[in-house]
Fold these 4 entries.
Entry 1:
Amino acid sequence: LLSAESLAVVVNNQVIAWLGKSNSNFRKQLKTNFDAFVLEIELDAFLNATKQTYKYQEFSKFPTVERDFAVVLKKSISTQELLQTIEKNGGNLLKSAKLFDVYTDKNFNPDEHSLAFKLHYGATDRTLTEEEVHPAFFGVIEVLKTEFGAKLREA
């Protein structure tokens, strides 16, 4: 393999596979002028690395409810900590929380920025109502205000 055009697949600090562009000698052996790529798998290492238990979860027949919000807070606060707090306080209807935008503005304090999050709420047995989503959604925002001093950013 050409070292500049190859990669190693590493799982748990163990190389389980190599993938890359072959050198010209290998292409000559194949009697081709086309680039050839090679994948080599350490099968035992691969099988050991992929021994995981997967839990099946049925897809909901009902739509999810999506809510976005943006908060202004100190840059020193970790996004991971914010996401963990959102997931912890989002209630049992919260299915996912993702950061989708980071914004800075001259009107913010120099040590602040705005982070925008997208929350998905859902249930497998019904379509959610606004009365179910609203308290959970605004509860998350209140926790971020209380725990991190976040300010809801207005559009």
Note: Helices lie at 24-29, 43-49, 79-89, 130-148.
Entry 2:
Amino acid sequence: GSVKNLANVGIPGIMVLVCDPAFTAQCEVSNWAFGNFAYTDANGNYALDQMKAGSYKLLFQDTSPVPVYLSEYYNNALDWENAISVTVGVEASVGNINATLTRASTIAGVVKDEGGAGIHNSHLNFTAVDGSRSSRHTTTARGAYLTRAMPAGAY
């Protein structure tokens, strides 16, 4: 398959995780609850070898230190519950399992006291107006915060 951006250009270095729905209720790099993975090449193409027959959910994830793209499951699903399974048959190839990823947005600022000094260790929660996503952050010693990998929208 391939992973492209909205301009239809292949994205290199995207991790494609193959997740077995029988083993986990989510698929994340952080808990290593997946069965197989691959990275996209310089043109955004990937191949997953030695797959056993079965149904799987695929997660496309930007694992770079500063993610540029939002993660998503196959067929544009944003979460595990809405992810579509891909079925692999015995000695069969499945092609055209593609993804189009959206660039992530950021929210940045400084939390200050009445005198203008940054407030250290303030806890911030950014929640999408529609309730679909949230992100928690803590300010630095100077009161600064930066969210990463947020979908565009109102918070």
Note: The mean pLDDT is 85.
Entry 3:
Amino acid sequence: KFLKISERVHPHGIYLITFSFIQKSSINRGCDLTNSLTGVLTRLSAQPIAIMADIEKMFYQLRVPTEDSRYLRFRWWPSGDVVKEPGEFQMLFHLFGGVSSPSCPNYALQKTADNNAEYFDKDTIQTVRTNFYVDDCLKSVEDNRQASRLVSQLR
């Protein structure tokens, strides 16, 4: 299976991510860069204090490169008026619910962790790499001090 990931960073820090596949079965399934939900939940029960976080509007923060947005076209009624003829539109952001959509935020998170590893402690970077399931973070720690530090760094 061959996976090509192209990336560019928009001047405002938004990742533009494109996935290309060479293999029929991969095209139908998409690639899976998502952390295992079982693994994330198992790690959550490892320590006594649980931390949960959500990245607001995660999919809306990941733009589709302009040259790829034509593949995300759809028809919809202008202003929701079903009496009118539907117009053609295209998505500029990654779809919530698309086959490859969960991989895009996970890739962006992994790249963000890699690109900013020097600014945060190893536990925070490891949390970003292993304790997110798409846009949700589930992590457990030993004490309140660790929880406060981690929450502060994840913001």
Note: The longest strand covers residues 2-9.
Entry 4:
Amino acid sequence: TTEIYTLSLHDALPIWSDVSIEQREKVWARDYLTDRVKLLPHRAPKISSTFILEHVAFMHNLSAEQILATRQKPRVTARHVAMYLAREITDESSTQIARAFRKRDHTTILYGTRRISDRIAIEPRFAQEVDLLRRLISESFAAYCAAFAQQRAS
């Protein structure tokens, strides 16, 4: 099979290389959505910090467990990016996000998001990578919602 992403030099954040949106959607559908459509709730889905964490882990070719359980720099950065995106994308409070990341205190989330915000401000390439990850998560959630609507219609 063809490798669909490569790792950047910036703490292993993914960079999709010459892959069409169509191909990305197929990857998401195959590796993520297929197993979860069966478990959809009866109400409309809402993006959560867990959804974001799983996607950040997937993009780093790791499990959510691996991102949560280690202090190795690339994984810590991935965890902080997931925290940052959860704060930016979801309606969840810092306390709710902390619970999803198995942290005792919401200040851990504030610290992680501040580190990513500071880094985005000074590293344009890192900012582009985080923005790309945000867009991919949004596309995946849109596909998830479409699968939900299709299941509800049938």
Note: Confidence is low (pLDDT under 50) at residues 1-17, 34-39.
